[in-house]
Each structure stands twice: as C-alpha cells, then as structure tokens.
Amino acid sequence: MEKKDIDWGNLGFGYVHTDYRFVSNYKNGSWDEGVLTEDANIVLNECACVLQYAQTAFEGLKAYTTEDGRIVVFRPDLNGERMENSAARLKMPVYPKEKFVEAVKKVVKANEGYVPPYGSGATLYIRPYMFGSDPIIGVKPANEYQFRIFTTPVGPYFKGGAKPITVRISDFDRAAPHGTGHIKAGLNYAMSLYAIVDAHEKGFDENMYLDPGTRTKLEETGGANIIFITKDGKLVTPKSDSILPSITRRSLVQVAKDYLNMEVEEREVMLSELSDFAECGLCGTAAVISPVGKIVDHGKEICLPAGMEDMGPVTKKLYDTLTGIQMGRLEAPKGWVVEI
Ligand code: PLP
Ligand code: COI
To answer: Are 100 and 10 in contact (CB under 8 A)?
Structure first.
C-alpha cells in the first residue's frame, strides 16, 4: 500500500485520523464478530455507564516497519492478556486475547499506509479500548459494551526524544492500596490529570509516584514504569502490586539478562535510595525508554550522574537492544515480534 504523505520525522505524540478502526459489540452475553469501519465517531446514550461511572480500560502497543520492510507488532499477546485482566477487574466481559491479536492485525493491515517507514523515528501507535455503553444510573456494571481499536502514527512521547527529562516526586497518588493501579483503567489516568498539569505548570516533565500505602517507596510515573542503573551496572526496577505491569519493563528485564548479561533486581525501591543510582529511565510503549536526568523531591535536586545531555551509557545499550529487536535488526526471542 502507498505510504500516506506525512512528515514522519516531525510527528509528536498526538492523534492523527487514520482510515479504519475495528469495532465489536457485546450484547445479550456475547461479542459479535467485529468489523472495520471508517466512522471514527461513537454515538452514546447520555447515561452510558462509561460516561457516568468511567467503566473503561485501554491498551497501547505499536507497529513498526523493520529494516527489511516488514510490518510487525511487539508482543500483542501480552497486551491482550493485560486487557483481559483489566476487563475482569472492572466487571467488563473479557475480549479473548486470541481475538484481540487478530483484531490488532486486521486494523494495522487496513491502515498500512500510516505505518511510518523504517528509520523515520516514528511508529504506528495502536489503541485498543473497551467501555460500558448502555444506560446505567444505579452503581453497577453495564450490560452492553463496545471494544474498539484505532491507530495513529506517533513520534516521541516526550518533546526532545532522547534528551533527559526532569521529574518530581508527586504529592498526589495515582493509585490506592488494593485499588486499580495494576490494571489499565481509564480512571487511573483521570486521577493523574491534575497532577500532570500541576507538574507542567511548575516546570517538570512528569510525576514520579510513591507507593500509596506508606509513601516511602518509588512506584512509577503517570504513563511509564521506572528503571534504574546502579553505579556498578545493575538494573533495578520497582516491584509493587499497585503499578502497571509494563510490557516494555518486562521485556527490558529479559533483554538485560539474556542479551547484555546484566544483573537484574526486581524489588521494592526506597525513595531514600535515589542518590545511589547512576542512571534512570522511564519505560513504556509510548515512552520507549526516556532518560531521566534530574529528580526533584520537594526542592531537593537529585542529579543523576548520567547528566542532562544524553541518555546514560547502560540505558543506551538497553534502548538500542530493545529497539533493535523491535525493528528487526536483532534476533527476537520467540513470539516477541508478530508479522502482519
Ligand atoms: N505504567 C503506566 C501507568 C502506563 O500507562 C504505561 C503504558 O502503557 C506503562 C506503565 C508502560 O506499559 P507498557 O510497557 O506495557 O506500555
Ligand atoms: C502507553 O505507553 O501505551 C501508554 O498508554 C502511556 C500513555 C500514553 C498513557
């Protein structure tokens, strides 16, 4: 398919209308087959459960053009599995992960012209989501649901791409103990909007959240997990029941061990440990790995030794290896790269 006339190199992380989206409806206890449609709009009753009680969850993954011109997606089965978990926790019907992967393939294929070319620095972001659609006024789950997937070509999530960013330790929480931090519920992101606007107004790029129970441990940011590199080259990443199990983070842990021979610690990370680390990065589908140069804890500046100019050397190795796998330059572990 002919590539669309888009200035790929200058895309930010925004919505671009593409030709097709996938839609499947759940009614009377089952999902229909689903179709591709050109209609990007949704008409809902004023009392739809999603509008009143935020019964919605979403996913995020990317399609890439490889060096040899294939179009691939990265570990879509894990997104499908996480969406199953999100749906179950929000009392929504599960959209089976096998059908999820098929639908992702269909919608990417239909929008092939929007998959950025190899080497452009852009990718096609894929956004699956599900919501309760029938009128609900007493607090209870909906009876009817819609599962949709749209795509949008995107550039870097943070302005400046690989330039290190500054984050602050947030006084707000994004999750509650025993709450919904571990699933990709829209409500978690609504909770973070006040905090992100406040952070930006005060000159910070993101919020680093603490564990909501004791506020002594580092958790994650509004849209990414965190990795640290110790001064002796170990990868350390927070383990917690209230963070989203990032597919990028889980992949990086494996890349660090199997490709780079690094030691990895997945454990609780105390706020008081911050000054022990040499490098820090935010990892996620949108963020890939965004290096953090400075963390501000209520006026106290923790400047990572890697500095504010470039990604730290170990973070760079992880970044190059992960993106090498995603773009087909390096051999992928079995099942990680799925061709369209
Ligand atoms: N944490 C949060 C809160 C997120 O929104 C995301 C994005 O999906 C991530 C972490 C990273 O997860 P993944 O690597 O699966 O994209
Ligand atoms: C992603 O990385 O896919 C995310 O969902 C992060 C953010 C855009 C919410």
So the answer is: no
Place of tokens 């960013």: 165
Tens of pLDDT, residue by residue over 259-298, are 999 999 999 999 999 999 999 999 999 989 999 999 999 9
Residue keyed to tokens 């004791």: 214
CA distances from 251 to 164, 204, 245, 255, 285 (A): 22, 28, 11, 6, 11
CA-nearest residue, atom 12 of ligand 1: 246
CATH superfamily of 165-325: D-amino Acid Aminotransferase, subunit A, domain 2 (3.20.10.10)
Q: Is the CB of 285 under 6 A from ligand 2?
A: yes
What is the residue whose two structure tokens read 């759940």?
26
Token pair for residue 271?
Answer: 């706020």
C-alpha to C-alpha distances, 319 to 109, 255, 256, 283, nearest whole angstrom: 27, 10, 10, 10
Domain boundaries, the chain: 8-154, 165-325
Instruction: Using most ligand atoms within 8 A of CB, pick from 285, 288, 322, 326 the residue to mutate for ligand 2.
Output: 285
Q: What separation in angstroms does the CA of 266 have from each of 176, 226, 255? A: 21, 11, 14
Distance CA 187, CA 174 (A): 9
Tokens of 286: 């949108």
* C-alpha angle 211-170-56 in degrees, rounded to nearest 5: 70
Which residues form the pocket of ligand 1, taking CB atoms under 6 Å from any ligand atom? Answer: 60, 220, 223-225, 244, 246-249, 284-285
The topology under which CATH files domain 8-154 is D-amino Acid Aminotransferase; Chain A, domain 1 (3.30.470)
| Per-residue model confidence as pLDDT tens digits over 67-108 | 999 999 999 999 999 999 999 999 999 999 999 999 999 999
Please provide the DSSP assignment of 133-176 as one string: -SB--SSS--S-EEEEEEEEEE--SSTTTTS-EEEEE-SS-SS-
Q: What are phi and psi of 97, to 5 degrees?
A: -60, -30
